[in-house]
Each structure stands twice: as C-alpha cells, then as structure tokens.
Amino acid sequence: MNTFSHKYNPEQLSPEELSIREHQLLKTHLNAERAARWKQLAGPKPTQLQIILKEKKWIWLVVIALLGAAICWQAGWFLPVLKDPNPTIAARTDLIPYPFDNIAVRGEQDQVQKIVRPAKALAAYRNNDFATAIRESSPNDPYFVGICWLQMHEPQKALAAFEQVSTFSDEFYYYKGVALQDLGRNEEAKALFEQALDSKTLRETYREAVVKRIKN
Amino acid sequence: MTLDIPVYTTLTRSMIESVPSTEKNFGLSEAQFEALLSQLGQGDEALFERVFVKQYWKMVRRLQSSHSTEQADAEDAVMEGLMSFRNILIARKVTWGNLEAYLNRIIVTDFQKKQKRNREMPVDSFAENLAADEDACFSTEELAAFKKAWDSLCDKCSGMLHRFYYDELPHFQIAELLGKSPEAVKQDKHRCIQKLRKHFFQSL
Prior knowledge:
The complex is a heterodimer of chains A (216) and B (204). With 216 residues, chain A is mainly α. Helices cover 57% and strands 4% of the residues of chain A. Chain A has a two-stranded antiparallel ribbon. Chain A is rod-shaped, with a radius of gyration of 41 Å. The N and C termini of chain A lie far apart (110 Å). The model of chain A has no long low-confidence stretch (mean pLDDT 82). Chain B is mostly helical and 204 residues long. Chain B folds into 2 domains: 20-119; 139-204, PhyR, sigma-like (SL) domain (Butyryl-CoA Dehydrogenase, subunit A, domain 3, Up-down Bundle). Chain B contains 11 helices and no strands. In chain B, helix 4 crosses helix 5 (71-90), helix 5 packs across helix 6 (99-119) and helix 8 crosses helix 11. The radius of gyration of chain B is 23 Å and the shape is flat. The interface between A and B is medium-sized, with 35 and 32 residues.
C-alpha cells in the first residue's frame, strides 16, 4: 500500500456509504471528466474576426462606416483625397511657356506628323497642372511631355522626352538647352542655344531669353 | 339601446417588457426548457451541452471584460458556473424566464466568492483552511487510481453512483428512473460501492 492509502483504510470506512474523502474524490474525478468533455465541445477559442462575424457586430461597423462615408461625401471632405496630391504646380518664371495648340503638324512635306492633343491635357497644361497634363497627354507627343517635365523642375526626364523628338522647331533648341543647363551641362546647352540663335525664324521673345541664358 | 363593446386585453409597456423571450433563455422556449430538465433528470445531457456549453467562450469573454480577469481564471469560473448551473437544473431550482441572466449571476457570484476567499484569510481560520485544502486536494496517483477503478465499473454501476453521489438524486428518484424499487436501488448501490472500493484499493 502507498503512503496515502491510510486515508482510505477499509476498516475505518463505513461499509455502505462512501467516506467524505471518497465522495470528494468521485466528484473531483467526474468534474474533471466533465470539464474535459465540455472544453472539447466548446472547441478552440474563437478569433476576434470569428466573434465579430458571429455576433453580427460587423453589421454595425458597416452601418457606421457607410454613415460616416455619406457624411464625409456630403461635406466634401473626400475632395482633397480624390484630387491629385500635387494638382497645381506654378509655372517656372525663368522659362517661356510654350503656347501649345490642340493640333500640331510637324515634319517635312513627305513625312507630316499630325498630333492631336487631348483637351484634358491641354486644359491641365494651361492651368499649370503639369502632372495631369503628362498623364492625359498623347503618347506620341514627347515635345509636350518634355516641356511639362521641364516646368516641373525635372530636367532629366525632360531630356529623356526631348531625345524622342524627331522633328525640331526653333524653340525646341531653347527648351532642350534649358534642360541641359539645369543639369549643369553648360557647354552642350550653349551649343544648342547658339543653334537656336542661328535660326532666322526664332521669335524675339525666345531670342532674348536665349541670349540672356548664354550670358549667364 | 345598449351597445356591446368587446373587451380587449390591453398590454402595457411594462407587461410587454416583462414577457420573457426565448432570446433571454438561450433560444429555448418554455416547453423546450421543460424537455431539457426532464432529459437532464434522466441522465441525458445532450441538449444541455448543445445549449449551454455552446455559450462557453461567450461567457468567458463576458467575465473577462466585466471583471478584467485573466483568461485562465475566467475559463475556470465559467466551467464551475456551468457545473453549478447543471446541478441547479437537475434539482429543478430554477424556472424559465431569464436563464441567461441567471447563469451569468451564478458565474459572477462564484467568481467573486473565489476571489474574496483568495484575498482574505483571517488568521484564526488559517489552520482550518489548510486542513480543508488538504482534504480537497488529491494527488495525481490518487486520481489515476480512482480513474482506473471507475473505468473498470460496469455502466450500470457507474450510472448508479453518478446519479446518487454526483447528481445527488434520492433513492426513490433513481428507482423511478430505473423502474426498480428503492430497496433494490440501495442494494445495487451497496454492491457498486464495494466493487469501486475493491478496484480502487487494487489500483493503489
């Protein structure tokens, strides 16, 4: 017999009834068995998501979210979010804004290229919203895109766009020269500015700007 | 000329509110609750487990949020509360009405009592508490020996002892359930105790 068996000495136990200790032991054992079974029945602890879905709290969350959205919409609080984060960038003061038209015809007689500028791109350009202008621009209009990048102080991107231009106008040398100057490539810029000055058809405004840039 | 005005029963707001709904009773109607009680009385716990044990985690969460308690403590309290509730149902000490609030009160009261007991222990009852704890505490060897002895009992014996010592049903009620005379039940019980003791001492 083990050390604790004296607690259950049959000689001290009543023949018919269980002793208090035996009774407690029976209850403890059955309670433990029951608890184990019930825990198994209850299953694992539900996650927060399961609780929300089960208790249908999500309906209230959806209702509150919809009401909040409706209020925000009505009050116009979404407008800053829906708008372009950088909507209007002021045009550079040291750059002549090119007067783009909705249709541009470029090239020689046998290779005439007609570019139709989307109205949205043109409107954005005229509002100094150059980011939108680039987004809305026609894919075959690198000159327009290049000038927009230049207005946004992105000479590298502007130069990349200008590299794709196949037919050059008098003003093109000016804009490309500005891009190079912005990048610190002054010698290349100067060469382009001089090329612009060689053209007799260069407008006076541009001529003055080019001379000013060469001097600086 | 006389007018026969029909008598309509009028329900006041308080009367409407006092009507217990199935929502307050874990979805059980009064008839279903009665069925549950009689099933429990006959030892069939399937409906009880389907209705109440399903609420286990919900009640644990509720106790945790209302008393900012640890999860393990809340789990123990809910489990003990469910067992107390089962015993109360078997003894038919509760009526249908607002079972959810009733069960919740049992759990919270038991939990608070236990907390109070753990917090406050008067010096004069210290030795007494120690003795009580020693009585209620069983070693794993004891429990293992008892489990072995209990599992070796036949279903008839384990059912009989379960009803008498665990569910605390009187002899006559067990006799009714088994369709026997109370004397026969007493004799069977005596025989089962002897068998349990014999197996228990063999397992020790």
